[in-house]
Specification:
It contains two helices and four strands. By secondary structure, it is an alpha+beta fold. It is elongated and about 60 Å long.
């Protein structure tokens, strides 16, 4: 270890200075118009339509979860199949059927 530095160990995000905290909001509804699901982090639950002031690391986690969930909702609506992923999944399977396109409009 470098001289002059001490091992700080893990830092509890909830004990960081309040000046560094961020305000985030969990959306009320998802891109499909349904109630947004709760976001859980250990013993903490962040509910739809609520605004929270949380440590920066927790805010980054919440915003990432919102982004990933929204992307998954939008992907359900996209009519183009991801052929690259379909081919990658079917390769190596002994009885893999020929990849076929799925029309998202019929779902």
């Amino acid at each position: 270890m470098a001289q002059g530095f001490k091992d700080l160990g893990p830092v509890d995000a909830w004990k960081t200075p309040k000046e560094t905290w961020k305000t985030v909001m969990v959306p009320e509804e998802d891109p499909l118009g349904k109630v947004y699901p709760d976001i859980g982090l250990n013993s903490h639950t962040f509910k739809a339509g609520k605004t929270y002031t949380v440590p920066a690391e927790v805010a980054a986690y919440i915003l990432d979860r919102v982004k990933v969930f929204n992307r998954s909702c939008v992907r359900l609506l996209q009519p183009n199949a991801d052929m690259k992923s379909i081919r990658e999944v079917s390769v190596g399977s002994a009885n893999a059927p020929e990849a076929s396109l799925v029309d998202g409009a019929t779902i």
